[in-house]
């Protein structure tokens, strides 16, 4: 089965178009005001207007309250909610009930002990995004272009569908998939020319290399 690709932090129509044409399975839109990739619900509504069926529109939130989720969903149709903050398993369950949408929970990994959280969230989330743990002094909880030691995941069984994230690039994504046997991969900074500026050529290269047969 081919690896699914999520391109995260899309904020311009050319990049959305490049991701769709190159075969992305998930398109991520960041609703976190401090991010250089931040989009408003109205901007996102315009960006997703022509997304074909079968490609999931993912809204990325950091510790959102109910009102934020409700007002965003009233403006932009989304298929998946990505929670990228310190939401508890209980909050994941609440967000699923409130929105009626599947939840992808991001879990930060730096060392083998962090896999306990992967297990805990696997019991409640519909999907997991296994990402590098953000450094304590990082301005953002994700999208920092940092990788973790992928060998931590080698040979692990994970309860739910999951995507590998953190510091992936067109140059390292095939090796990351080979080591972790990830079913899907997620990228943001690795397909940018500057923070918050997506590069269509890098998006095409990334998707081609992630979906090529792994030898
Ligand atoms: O991208 C952001 O600006 C961002 C802000 C707040 C929370 C999460 C954020 N991004 C998450 C991602 O883009 C990805 O899901 C993932 O962390 C991979 O990012 P990268 O290492 O840059 O490829």
Oligomer: single chain
CATH class: Alpha Beta
CATH architecture grouping: Alpha-Beta Barrel
Mind telling me the C-alpha Rg? 16 Å
Query: What separation lies between the terminal Cα atoms?
Result: 13 Å
Order of helices and strands: EHEHEHEHEHEEHEEEH
Give the beta-strand count. 10
What is the helix content?
25-40%
Percentage of residues in strands: 15-25%
What is the CATH topology assignment? TIM Barrel
Say which molecules are bound, naming each kind only once.
the ligand O=C(O)c1ccccc1NCC(=O)[C@H](O)[C@H](O)COP(=O)(O)O
Q: How would you name the CATH homologous superfamily?
A: Aldolase class I
Largest sheet, if any?
A: 8 strands, parallel
Give the topology, please.
Blueprint (H helix, E strand, L loop, with lengths): L3 E4 L5 H10 L3 E5 L10 H7 L8 E6 L4 H10 L4 E4 L5 H11 L3 E7 L5 H8 L4 E6 L29 E3 L8 H8 L3 E4 L4 E3 L2 E2 L1 H12 L4
Parallel strand pairs: 1-2, 1-8, 2-3, 3-4, 4-5, 5-6, 6-7
Antiparallel strand pairs: 9-10
Helix pairs in contact: 1-7
Bound molecules: ligand LARABZUK.
Family: Belongs to the TrpF family.
EC number: 5.3.1.24
GO molecular function: phosphoribosylanthranilate isomerase activity
Question: Which descriptors apply to this entry?
Answer:
single chain, 215 residues, alpha/beta, TIM Barrel, eight-stranded parallel beta sheet, two-stranded antiparallel ribbon, 10 strands, 31% helix, globular, binds the ligand O=C(O)c1ccccc1NCC(=O)[C@H](O)[C@H](O)COP(=O)(O)O
């Amino acid at each position: 089965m081919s690896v699914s690709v999520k391109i995260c932090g899309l904020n311009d129509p050319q990049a959305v178009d490049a991701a769709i044409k190159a075969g992305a399975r998930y398109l991520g839109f960041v609703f976190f005001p401090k991010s250089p990739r931040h989009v408003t619900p109205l901007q996102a509504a315009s960006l997703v207007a022509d997304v074909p069926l079968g490609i999931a529109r993912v809204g990325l939130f950091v510790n959102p309250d109910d009102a934020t989720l409700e007002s965003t969903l009233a403006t932009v149709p989304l298929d998946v909610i990505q929670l990228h903050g310190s939401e508890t398993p209980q909050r994941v369950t609440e967000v699923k009930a409130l929105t009626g949408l599947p939840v992808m929970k991001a879990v930060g990994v730096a060392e083998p002990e962090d896999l306990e959280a992967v297990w805990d969230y696997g019991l409640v989330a519909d999907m997991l995004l296994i990402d590098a743990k953000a450094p304590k002094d990082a301005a953002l909880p994700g999208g920092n272009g940092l990788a973790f030691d992928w060998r931590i995941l080698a040979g692990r069984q994970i309860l739910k569908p999951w995507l590998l994230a953190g510091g992936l690039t067109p140059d390292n994504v095939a090796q990351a998939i080979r080591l972790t046997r990830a079913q899907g991969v997620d990228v943001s900074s690795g397909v940018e020319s500057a923070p918050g500026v997506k590069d269509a050529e890098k998006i095409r290269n990334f998707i081609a290399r992630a979906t090529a047969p792994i030898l």
